[in-house]
Design brief:
Layout lengths: L17 H11 L2 E5 L6 H6 L4 E4 L6 H10 L1 H4 L6 E4 L7 H12 L5 E5 L5 H5 L8 E5 L5 H4 L6 E2 H5 L8 E2 L3 H10 L10 H19 L8 H13 L7 H12 L5 H13 L30 H8 L3 H6 L1 H21 L3 E7 L5 E8 L4 E7 L3 H18 L8 E5 L3 E2 L1 E2 L5 E4 L3 E2 L1
Parallel strand pairs: 1-4, 1-5, 2-3, 3-4, 6-15, 10-11, 11-14
Antiparallel strand pairs: 7-12, 8-9, 9-10, 13-14
Length: 430
Amino acid sequence: MCQMPEISSKAAYLPRIVDSELERKLRSKGAVWIRGTKWCGKSTTAKRVAKTAILMQDESTRKQNIALAEADPHLFLSGETPVLIDEWQDVPFIWNQVRTEVDERNAVGQFILTGSRSPNKAAEEGLHSGVGRISDLMMRPMSLYESGESTGAVSLEKLFEGQDPPGAKCDLGISEYSFLTARGGWPFAVGKPDDVALQQASDFFDRLVSVEMIEGTKRDPERIGLLLRSYARNIATQASNGVIKKDIVSNEGSSLDEDTILAYVKDLKSLFVVEESKAWTPSVRSKAAVRSSNTRYFVDPSIACAALGMGPKALIRDLMTFGLFFENMCVRDLRIYSQRIGGTVKHFRDSSGLECDAIIDLNDGRWAAAEIKLGGHAALDDAAENLLKLRDIVGEDNPPAFEMVISGAPGASYRRKDGVIVVPLGLLGP
């Protein structure tokens, strides 16, 4: 299991799971691009490793940095390595120079690039591939393990190694998870008074609507808000753009055409605000056709809460919505934990109606299935039955390493008589 350093009360930095990933990638490639949404901690993590930092959004030096990058990109990238270019997409042409410098220096660990927005299409067309020179590292808001709410007693990596979960107990329940869902994994929110912590997601949402999504465009923030509220209402589903259009009409009394919805969602992806879960295709064909639609999630569930104006109490009053937002939080954490062992999180659904919330798919061919349930024992039984059905249909030639139900109820981790593992979210870790 990944061991996180102990944190003193005076520590300014909360260690991240990607710390070890960044260190490994810097030893294997000339440059690393840390990408992820704003406020998730990319710059802070990168600065701890970098020996030279070029901060493109520091207004006191921004203009001269851009001018130097344009006039002499080689000089711009000079300095003790690793050199950090924070928010590199503000000078997108520098990507090509980084690639060139890596080739000429023939050394690893030269550059760290951070970015909270993918380059626009025009810039992308002029960029060379960074394959073999620039390694990609996705960073998300904090998991419950990183923010200290999960003990990490049940290691995802050790489950893949065949170890049984320890009989650890978790006291977290609906009240605690409702707060953690609405607060989100924003580093600045962790450890703050509740009102301050909950304000972070609202501030993120307001800036997203009024600044980030309209930058360089003539878009109306009100129309962006329509889309984000509908996306939140359709979280953890495979809703099409047509469904979202109908939802906006039904709930908002307004409308967006499907081309506009497509453009807005594309921008949300480029800002790393939404992270859809791709469909998993098993190596053996299902008896029914596998559906290929993506499942819609935000990179952090607190964005959905902010979009709909739902705090912890509102979530508890609407358990159906809360269950979907809780699923988004579990998927966020699974993505963070699985990334360090070469895994991605997908979903499964076939035409017979068989579904699975999360398939953890490792790059060595191993996989595991997880169902996510906010409720208690009855919900656990239904989830376990569904997982066993999935194993029977798709796991004959390549059975899952394990099946797991992630629970939002207080209790212990254990393996059921049918082999399915039950893990409270507050015990799960890398």
